[in-house]
Design brief:
The protein is mostly helical and about 110 residues long. About 60% of the residues lie in helices and about 5% in strands.
């Protein structure tokens, strides 16, 4: 909705030096929020979901699990603090790469 779009716009235009001024804990929270917002935005744009015949066995035809996981996380890009990143890059470089906190991986629900 509107709040999601507003948050993603604010993240896109956040100045890099402003992000750098966040504490490590604040940056981790920010990147987790950006990841989730980007994920929600991308899933909403993927509707209607076209079912994959092989994935219909374990998941219903209209499940978000029908979206090809690897392509999805490597294809969807967000502009954040002037930098264009995929969801996979946000997880690998910004969340795990900068923080190495196992709890952050649980926060991503992956």
């Amino acid at each position: 909705g509107e709040d999601l779009e507003r948050f993603l716009r604010q993240a896109a235009f956040l100045a890099p030096d402003e992000l750098a001024a966040f504490s490590a804990e604040q940056r981790l929270g920010f990147w987790i929020d950006v990841f989730h917002a980007g994920l929600l935005h991308a899933v909403a744009r993927s509707y209607p979901i076209e079912p994959d015949l092989l994935l219909q066995i374990p998941f219903p035809a209209n499940s978000v699990k029908q979206i090809h996981r690897l392509k999805f996380f490597r294809r969807e890009q967000l502009l954040v603090a002037g930098e264009r990143l995929t969801l996979q890059e946000i997880e690998d470089r910004k969340i795990w790469g900068e923080h190495r906190d196992l709890r952050s991986l649980f926060a991503l629900h992956r």
